Amino acid sequence: MKPSTIEDQHIWEFEMNRRLRKLEAEQQATAEAERHQMKEAHWMHCPKCGQRLTTESYGQVEIDLCPSCLGLWLDANELERILANESGVLRSWLGILRGR
Question: Is 32 helix (H, G, I), strand (E, B) or coil?
Fold first, then answer.
């Protein structure tokens, strides 16, 4: 017995949806692997010269330093944490840099 056109259409749609879900999952896995690889390639490297960064503690804040170009890098909210513990000239100078 030959399947009807409606059955053929249903089977075709089901197969296309299955293939699309599989392709989306493969693309998502590939994108995640690429993001992970990029993070590993750039993690803790100086954005200016590419050298490996070292960390030093400044109070409760860990500052990332580049031994090559002497760049100093702060993570999100670390400047605010440093400013909260500083007073005087350094605080005013850093406040000017931040536009306050």
Answer: helix
Structure token pair of residue 99: 């536009």
- Global pTM reads 0.51
The answer to whether 60 and 84 are in contact (CB under 8 A) is no
Q: Please name which of 38, 42, 85 lies closest in space to residue 64, comparing C-alpha atoms.
A: 42
For tokens 């170009």, the residue is 69
CA separation for the pair 90, 100 (Å, rounded): 13
Kindly report, residue by residue over 24-83, the tens digit of the pLDDT.
Answer: 999 999 999 998 888 887 788 888 888 999 998 887 888 899 999 988 888 888 888 877
Domain locations along the chain: 1-43, 54-97
For the four alpha carbons of 39, 68, 61 and 99, in that order, the dihedral sign comes to negative
Contact criterion met (CB below 8 Å) for 56 and 71: no
| CA–CA gap between residue 10 and residue 23 (Å, rounded) | 20
